[in-house]
Amino acid sequence: MAKQESRKEDMIRDATALVERVEAKFDSFDEPVVIGFRENGSACIYFGEEPVFQFNSADQLRRVHDGYLFKAEQGKLVRLERTRQDGAPVLLRHAMSPSEQTALLDKAQRMMTLLASDLGAKRYGCVRQVPHDAPILERAARWLQQLEWPVAIADVPNAI
Q1: Is the N end or the C end of the chain the one with fewer CB atoms within 10 Å?
Q2: Angstrom distances, CA of residue 18 to CA of 80, 94, 110
Q3: How many angstroms separate the CA atoms of 13 and 2, rounded?
């Protein structure tokens, strides 16, 4: 029997740090998108399992998951690779070249632009959200409209 794939995590149920979160199906994306906001206003957007873009409260990009984990470090992105050394898990740090960083930011901008377009044209269906009565998709649309590109990279990966 074939093994059925499932989401690693149920973001609506488990991502309690995102005090407002919504899962919606958008015309421009094959997988559902989860959009969430932390108590401090920082946003996280999950396009299915990946890519994931996480911002701080100043709307600076702080983390990305897209095949690898990327984190902000002194205004630049670094790639972290999970591996094992001497039987113990470690994260190897790789500095990204300017062209690699630009390519990742261009991808983020393309995806965010499509998401903003779908939100603006109401080309989506809400699957579920927490809290149930919050206007999270409207908040996300406003947030995406004011986001400036190219987006700034945070100095640290924390959700400050």
Answers
A1: N
A2: 24, 29, 24
A3: 27
Where residue 41 falls (left for φ over 0; alpha for ψ -120 to 50; beta otherwise) is left
Whole-angstrom distance, CA of residue 120 vs CA of residue 118: 5
- C-alpha to C-alpha distance for 98 and 76, rounded to whole angstroms: 9
Q: Are the C-beta atoms of 112 and 53 separated by less than 8 Å?
A: yes
Query: What letter represents residue 77's amino acid?
Result: L
Q: pLDDT of 104-127, one tens digit each? A: 999 999 999 999 999 999 999 999
pLDDT band at 8 (very low <50, low <70, confident <90, very high): low
Residue matched to tokens 């995806």: 111
**Integer Cα distance of 110 and 148 in angstroms:** 13
Distances (CA, A) of 90 to 4, 28, 84, 144, 158: 29, 36, 6, 35, 20
Position of tokens 């902000």?
Answer: 72
**Residue extents of the structural domains in the chain:** 17-146
Alpha carbon distance 35, 115 (integer Å): 10
The pair of three-digit structure tokens given for residue 74, joined into one six-digit string: 């002194």
Residue 75 and residue 156 in contact, taking contact as beta carbons nearer than 8 Å: no
Residue pair 50/66 in contact (Cβ under 8 Å)? The answer is yes
